[in-house]
Amino acid sequence: MDQTLSSLSTFLTDRSLYTESPNLSQSETRCPCCPLCLNGLRQPKALPCLHTFCENCLAAHMDRSIAHEGLRGYFKCPMCGFATSAPVGDETSKQWAGKFPINHLVLVVQEKQTTFCQPCLNDKRDTYSAAYCETCSERLCLACIQHHKRLKIAKDHVVTELNTMESSAIDPAKINLLFRCPLHGKSFECFCDSHQVLCCSKCIIVQHKTCKKVDAVEDLATGIKEGQLCKQIKSKLGGLQSNFQKVQTHWDDNLKEIEQKMTGIKDSIFKWKSTIIKKVEELTSSALAELDQIYGAITNTISSHLEECKSVIAALEISDIMLEEAIQKVDDAECFMTLNKLSNQVESYTTALNNVYETAIQMKLDFTPDSEVQNFQRVSSLGKLSKLEAPVTFRINLKGERKTGGKFKKTATVKSIRKHGKT
């Protein structure tokens, strides 16, 4: 995933795919989702790169990193690839994920989303909430608050009244947890101009002691909310969202198109199946009818010859009986006349038998498949299926960006703001 995002990052940087961002006041209507499960964030945990995920999703990602990538002792952010080292000690992924700070910048937006108690909603009851459990990332009504407090598993959960949350700013101590040095665990205090990185007090001594320009974060941050950097980053974030939504719409439409095409191809395959079966049935019926006709002709011929043979044999049997009786029971004159008649029969049957021998045939019945039918056995598929890819051109909105020297103007950095003023 990190390679994909890297390629997309290059693509976006080269073309400045940014538009004006939504108004800041719209944040109340936004519902942050976990980039891994794409559901509402639950116990949002922030990595050092500030990418934020559900605690359980983060733990599952760690397990996958070990199982599929063989990474031990560290894991990569699934969005940007930033490597985070494991804490000292033998801990499970769940324990490790639990040690990352809750992203209260996201949590405060989540807290404004739902007005109903989540446990009651699970029971299909609409009950207005009165407090928010930061540990469970759920709103609770008065009754559920009391039940929540009685649960042993929830005794250490942080539950805050909504009135208190909505009327107060985010606790700086909670936000400070998001900005700690991943190497030394200390708060960032300075910014190194040479390396363009945030530094803790130990970083300054170890890695940046020879750097010429290291400024305090507090000095650089003065007026930052009204400065150009904040506006540009906000604009670019909104622009990136807008243009990624265009890409998402493209893939959504593409998926629908493929699903429709899939249905059409299936229909075509079944249609050809029906056509082939129908044709085979027609050919089968025709072949069987022809077989019956030929079989009838052959059996008629054989039956005719059989009847002829049976008739001759019966006649010969009678002649043989007559001769036996004539020899035994009649006088010589009558025997002579009988022999004369039988002699003519013998001559006649001998001629007939010679004709039978000369014209005798063996009737046979055979079937040879048509060459096209034999070739059909070698058909390996009903047709060729192809996966085609075609380039797509997106209409990119370049509002708020000014092209200079063949490239689009980059976002202001801390260095450029210090040189040219904060506004």
UniProtKB/TrEMBL annotation:
Classification of source organism: Eukaryota, Metazoa, Spiralia, Lophotrochozoa, Mollusca
GO molecular function, one term: zinc ion binding
Domain of life (superkingdom): Eukaryota
Annotated RING-type domain residues: 34-80
PROSITE patterns cross-referenced by the UniProt entry: ZF_BBOX (PS50119), ZF_RING_1 (PS00518), ZF_RING_2 (PS50089)
Listed transmembrane segments: none
Ranges for domain B box-type: 112-162
Protein name: Uncharacterized protein
UniProt keyword Metal-binding present: yes
Xref: Pfam families: zf-C3HC4 (PF00097)
Keyword annotations from UniProtKB, A to Z: Metal-binding, Zinc, Zinc-finger
